[in-house]
Design goal:
Number of helices of chain C: 6
Helix content of chain C: 40-55%
Low-confidence stretches of chain B: 1-14
CATH superfamily of the largest domain in chain C: Glutaredoxin
CATH architecture of the largest domain in chain C: 3-Layer(aba) Sandwich
Number of strands of chain C: 10
Distance between the termini of chain B: 32 Å
CATH class of chain B: Mainly Alpha
CATH topology of the largest domain in chain C: Glutaredoxin
Largest interface: A-B, 25 and 33 residues
Order of helices and strands of chain B: HHHHHHHHHHHHHHHHH
Strand content of chain C: 15-25%
Radius of gyration of chain B: 22 Å
Shape of chain C: elongated
Low-confidence stretches of chain C: none
Helix content of chain B: over 70%
Chains: A mainly alpha (186), B mainly alpha (486), C alpha+beta (199)
Number of helices of chain B: 17
Oligomer: heterotrimer
Distance between the termini of chain C: 61 Å
Structural class of chain B: mainly alpha
CATH class of the largest domain in chain C: Alpha Beta
Shape of chain B: globular
Order of helices and strands of chain C: HHEEEEHEHEHEEEEH
CATH topology of chain B: Cytochrome C Oxidase, Chain A
Number of strands of chain B: 0
Number of domains of chain B: 1
Mean pLDDT of chain B: 90
Mean pLDDT of chain C: 90
Largest sheet of chain B: none
Chain lengths: 186, 486, 199
């Protein structure tokens, strides 16, 4: 119940940003969209699924993730149909499947996904800070450069967040049971 | 099981997991080393005008030689470290096979991009060169080359993820595996052996290198496919050299585990981690990532402090290596009655070659010297020293050890001839490079002036010796593997 | 074994198919690339709008007779890209005049409130748009949203009281359809496109 409340809060928070995202791509891509994903994640935080569904669900999540990474869809998300699809697909087809499949993913696959996320944030930061063209028609060039910088900061932050437990040790990795289902979520 | 008993254990008692996969990898490495050396020989002979090679083909060979040698050095280093880490932690065989498969896929892509697509933009794929070939190759060929790197990078990422995961599982944290308890003087009942310290350090810095390398590779790919997306060229160069420097250094730092694990069999003294050893490896971890700026000393737009750091770290990065590995090797060898067979000779040679190779590197790392020397043969001279006499010698030493059997005997006449040929060839070959560099002969030129030909021709003769000795080492390995399997 | 991997393969294929489709077969990653591709694939009919030019005359947006109309969107006090684009537009005009290709070129203001005929005349004079082959014009305020939507031009206010917009050269062909988009500096591509159409 508490989680459902939190999920609704995240979703409401995202909808409240509806007008703020028109001006700032950072608020759009790095605040509103993650909040929508978070809403989906919280919605099914304690749910478990069968093992064999994990990989197909991961592919669903990856597809939706890549779809919203395309600059043209960030523009599209500011139109009414695009906005509707955004509000529905990000929680239900990215947050939910990601949370459901994550505990089943092996440590190598998780590490691979995390490393890829860091590389891709680097690429995005690289392109958005230096592209001489406007990548999204709906945003100013200066806002695009700010977004690129934000991608780089986010990448650096995530790198620290993910590296510190491995470097200095934590108890999380020990807590997976014999079925391969890890009880530790993150 | 204590570290001591692991190290002095008789070879037959030591666990040898995944030896088959490692042996296969070493056959592949040996074969590719030989092939790439032949490419090198062809380039030297063409520069010496003993044979005719079209300049376009020369640059394709140069690209293949660079990418092939860096890749194979890393592949053989990775196989060696995997093998010896298997003595201390349990590694999943599937990951190694996936690593090898992705590596071979990458090799196929790279070779076809070069010899079918005509890509000749050098192994450093310096932005924006892959996209502006002047008609020599299509964007598709450059893209295939970059995708080949991506495939190899993904393979290495899996390799390090597994390694990092298992080290973490066994030692609780990577900093403990890096020997921080030794450094801080805390008690550690199960201190990490040298191989694990090396593996932990390489896992950290090469993962960072690969992640940043992947970023610049994908950005270059995007630029190739959608030319409107441009990238800051200086930032791209920084990332490429960070990745390239870290990656090639990692190959030696992985292969050196062969020295830590094999030499104790000869000296009878276990190679143990101590405080100094751990400090040295932690220093290497930082230095190897901070020193890449010495590749950009000629880029006047770089912030001066970075170049100063590049020069300073160039000096210092030799110290932990020479003080610890080379000095310890010297002490171990001096105090013991070692039997000099092919394995021990090559391994001791490799430590010597690696250390000596850092001297011309430090010289080139000086800003004032670099301004005149960087585009001369001096630079291939220095990296051939620590690759040919260092990493490759480690790999050959490891191969000789794999097929040695339990008894250690003095070198046979044939082994002695092969070893001396290799030593003479390699030493002569790199000396010619260094002399040519001192004489201001430029590197990477397909066609040479008349006055330079004596250098090239002497170099060619020495490279013939290297190729012959390499063929002997590889054939010996394959024949003995066959015999020991029967 | 097959049964176990089948759902993953299926979902992965659908995912790749979706992305393939969403990028117009891997060709368009930005909305700008998408609109250019779409204009070529499915030319859009342009309504018969009247514009007011710099001498306060009404001029048709649609091509008359067998001519082709080139449109670029501007605002006259634009400080950066419009200035460069106007110079390129002038080069195209000169080239077409020499070759005798029947073309009319219009710089359409998307800021009709501020861009009065006098203001447009100043802009025209500055770039040698004399009103013969190339003129500067503004739409009726009520027509502007329709026009921007038809050409997929996004105009957003910038930090200095001006605008940023996706600048390009838009082609309205002889059949009155918006059928191609070019970069403002792609002079050779525009000329080649028009010659091909003419021959």
């Amino acid at each position: 119940m508490k989680l459902l409340g939190l999920a609704l809060l995240a979703a409401a928070e995202a909808v409240a940003l509806r007008y703020a995202v028109i001006e700032s791509p950072i608020r759009h891509v790095l605040v509103q969209m993650p909040l929508l994903v978070l809403a989906g994640v919280l919605l099914v935080w304690n749910r478990q699924i069968r093992h064999d569904l994990a990989v197909p669900l991961l592919f669903v999540a990856l597809t939706v993730f890549l779809f919203w990474m395309l600059p043209r869809n960030v523009d599209w998300a500011l139109t009414l149909p695009g906005e509707t699809v955004k509000y529905l697909s990000l929680p239900l087809m990215l947050g939910v499947p990601l949370r459901l499949s994550w505990p089943w993913l092996g440590p190598i696959l998780r590490g691979f996904l995390k490393a890829n996320a860091l590389s891709m944030l680097g690429v995005l930061g690289f392109l958005y800070t230096h592209a001489p063209i406007r990548i999204c028609n709906s945003y100013l060039l200066s806002a695009q450069q700010d977004l690129g910088t934000a991608f780089l900061y986010l990448g650096a932050g995530l790198a620290c967040l993910w590296a510190i437990p491995i470097l200095f040790g934590n108890s999380c990795s020990r807590r997976s049971n014999s079925t391969g289902y890890a009880s530790c979520g993150v | 099981m204590s570290a001591v008993s692991e190290l002095v254990a008789d070879k037959s008692n030591a666990t040898e997991p995944q030896a088959g996969a490692v042996k296969l990898t070493m056959i592949l490495s040996g074969a590719v080393f030989a092939l790439m050396m032949v490419f090198g020989l062809i380039m030297r002979a063409a520069q010496g005008q003993w044979i005719e090679v079209d300049p376009a083909l020369f640059y394709q060979l140069l690209t293949a030689h660079g990418a092939g040698m860096v890749g194979t050095a890393a592949l053989s280093g990775a196989a060696i470290m995997w093998y010896f880490c298997g003595r201390h932690i349990v590694l999943t065989a599937g990951i190694f096979w996936a690593f090898l498969a992705l590596f071979l896929l990458g090799v196929a892509l790279i070779l076809s991009s070069i010899f079918i697509g005509g890509y000749g933009g050098a192994w450093t794929f310096l932005y924006p060169l892959p996209a502006i070939s002047g008609g020599a190759w299509e964007a598709g060929a450059a893209a295939a080359f970059l995708l080949g790197y991506v495939s190899i990078g993904v393979g290495f990422l899996l390799y390090y993820l597994e390694l990092g995961r298992q080290i973490h599982a066994r030692y609780g944290s990577l900093v403990r595996a890096l020997g921080w308890n030794l450094i801080l003087g805390r008690e550690d009942k199960n201190p990490p052996p040298p191989t694990i310290v090396a593996a932990a350090a390489v896992t950290i810095f090469n993962s960072i290198g690969i992640i940043l390398g992947a970023a610049v590779l994908v950005a270059s790919l995007v630029h190739l496919l959608v030319p409107g997306f441009e990238v800051n060229a200086l930032l791209a160069k920084n990332l490429i050299y960070f990745f390239g420097h870290v990656f090639i250094n990692a190959s030696i730092y992985m292969a050196v585990t062969a020295v830590y694990e094999i030499l104790p069999e000869y000296t009878g003294k276990p190679w143990k981690s101590n405080r100094l050893f751990a400090i040295a490896w932690n220093a290497v971890l930082i230095f190897v990532m901070a020193v890449y700026w010495h590749h950009l000393l000629q880029d006047v737009v770089m912030p001066p402090w970075m170049l100063v750091v590049g020069q300073l770290v160039s000096y210092f990065s030799g110290i932990p290596l020479i003080a610890v590995t080379a000095f310890s090797t010297f002490l171990y060898v001096r105090g013991s009655k070692m039997t000099w067979d092919l394995t021990s000779s090559l391994l001791v040679l490799s430590v010597a070659g690696w250390s000596v190779g850092s001297i011309p590197a430090s010289i080139d790392g000086m800003i004032s010297v670099n301004k005149v020397m960087h585009n001369t043969m001096w630079v291939p001279g220095h990296f051939h020293t620590y690759l040919l006499l260092g990493e490759v010698a480690m790999a050959f030493g490891f191969m000789a050890w794999l097929v040695r059997g339990k008894t250690i005997a003095q070198m046979s006449g044939l082994d002695r001839v092969a070893f001396v040929t290799y030593l003479a060839g390699a030493a002569g070959f790199v000396t010619v490079f260094l002399f040519s560099g001192a004489a201001s002969i430029p590197r990477r030129w397909a066609v040479h002036y008349e006055e330079w030909l004596p250098h090239d021709r002497i170099g060619t003769l020495f490279s013939v010796l290297i190729v012959l000795a390499t063929l002997a080492f590889v054939l010996r390995f394959v024949l003995r593997l066959d015999r020991s399997n029967r | 074994m097959l049964v176990r991997v089948l759902p993953s393969v299926l979902v992965a294929s659908i995912g790749l198919g979706t992305l393939w489709h969403a990028t117009d077969r891997g060709q368009a990653f930005t909305s700008e690339a998408a609109r250019r591709l779409d204009a070529v694939r499915a030319p859009r009919p342009v309504p018969a709008l009247q514009l007011e030019d710099m001498s306060s005359q009404l001029v048709p947006l649609l091509p008359q007779g067998d001519e082709v109309v080139l449109v670029e969107f501007i605002y006259t006090v634009c400080g950066d890209i419009c200035q460069v684009a106007a110079a390129d537009f002038a080069t195209i005009r000169d080239q077409l005049e020499v070759r005798g290709v029947p073309v009319r070129m219009i710089s359409v203001s998307f800021d009709p409130e501020r861009d009065t005929p006098e203001q447009m005349a100043i802009y025209g004079e500055a770039h040698e748009a004399d009103g013969n082959m190339w003129t500067v014009a503004r739409p009726m305020s009520e027509d502007l949203p329709l026009l921007l939507e038809l050409f997929d031009v996004t105009v957003i206010p910038d930090e200095w009281g001006g605008f940023q917009h996706n600048a390009a050269i838009h082609v309205i062909d002889g059949d009155g359809r918006f059928s191609a988009v070019f970069d403002t500096d792609a002079i050779d591509a525009v000329l080649a496109h028009l010659e091909e159409r003419n021959s």
